[in-house]
Amino acid sequence: MSTDVLEIADDSPEAVLALYETRGWGDGLPMVPPTPARVDAALAALGDVDPDEVIATLPPRLGEATRRVIAVNAVLAGCPPACLPVLVSAVRALARPEVNLRGVNATTHPVAPLLIVSGEIAEQAGYNGGLGAFGPGNRPNATTGRALRLVLMHVAGAVPGPGDASTQGGPAKYAYCVAEHLAATPWEGLAPGLASAVTIHCGEAPHNFHDMESGDPGRILDKCASAMASLGQNNVVIAQGEYLVALGPEHAATIASAGWTTRDVASYLFERARLPATEIRANFTSIAWPPWMHAVPDGELMPMTGSPDNIKVFVCGGAGKHSSVIPSWGMTKSVTVPVES
Amino acid sequence: MKIYAPDGRIGVPPKPRAPSPAVLTGLRVAVLDNGKPNARLLLTRAAEQLAARTGAVVELVTDKGPGHNAATACSDLVLDRITEEVDLVLTGSAD
Fold it and tell me: What is the chain B residue with the closest CA to A291?
């Protein structure tokens, strides 16, 4: 077994919090004591698998995330056992090299991995992709997001200071998990062909945009483009940076009813989310662009990312004319993996 | 009663770090600018001081290649050049 066992006087949340605090563990909130019985119950949701198999080795600490260690953190966060397959798959996704987890954890930027749950598991485990999806009130969203953060802190070592240099931190670093609202998605979704999947996108907290009036896709998406075109975002000088556009169902329906695909949305935003090249050059010396972007003359407009492929679209939320865009940290790529059954 | 620790074991680094040379005299030094503000200035000055004190030679000052920065490895082209032309590299500068 790869997981240490500790002695504690009682299983009250206060006792666990006190013990964990002395060791630099925890996110500051009360935690459920990870007793062997609770952890075994969580592991049972994964079926007949090796609980001590190393799923991923997570930097910067290079901690080994076994299913048991992941289950311990799930219990701490109050995660229902039915959410364990999502959490294990999310950890597997975080270890993909294109995520660049070492950078995500260690940067001064406030980036946090957003976990998006798609498909059957979202419905079976009770994740919320509808009204208030990014907000409080749903246990699977809140606790899975929190458990993933605890894995990052405990296993990866992303503790503010020694392993997480984020200048201001951010609320998305507490819990950042939603479901994709596939029933309200007029397109094929983030994980076509997969019964259940998780997507990891390492980015900022959602930037809201609203349009209560338009029946025209371009007018709606111009608000999104406006939110994207900001000198303060990392992506302005990092060509590989992604944007994740979280369309509310009403905006998505309006856009799709005009015959637009997600590719059309991405192409339009690539064209419209731009800043003057002169202004960018005047403000930055550290620029990670490919040669063609360096060749864009002063006086022309520069796209906020190097390709429409870097703009991803999904649907979540409930009634209302609000959507959001989530700029990435920059030197990271989103990944989608199937949920481990 | 018993509870689990949440951190798990520490794994083995995928590649060991190269040992530092015991003597720098005569060695060729590169400065690898990681793209952070003032990194090139700071690292180059440090390399020059190192060379003056030890008899090493500052052979190469380079960035990481187009599209690369502090959050990524350098391009293969730059890595090949460093491997070919120098014995040790100064890099790493934060915000």
Answer: B66
β-pairing, B88-91 vs B28-33, is parallel
Q: Which residues of A touch B36 (CB under 8 A)?
A: 286
Q: Best mutation site among A8, A69, A283 for testing chain B: the one with the most B CBs within 10 Å?
A: A69
Domain limits for position A75: 13-338
Number of domains present in the structure of chain B: 1
One digit per residue, the tens of pLDDT, for chain B of length 95 reads: 899 999 999 998 878 888 889 999 999 999 999 888 889 999 999 999 999 999 999 999 999 988 788 888 899 999 999 999 999 999 987 77
> Min CA distance, B90 vs chain A (Å)?
19
Number of CB atoms found within 10 A of residue A213's CB: 9
Out of A33, A57, A100, the one facing B3 most closely (by C-beta) is A33
Query: What ipTM is given for this predicted complex?
Result: 0.89
Tokens of A53: 């198999």
**Number of domains present in the structure of chain A:** 1
Please state, in angstroms and rounded to a whole number, the distance separating the CA atoms of residues B57 and A94.
41
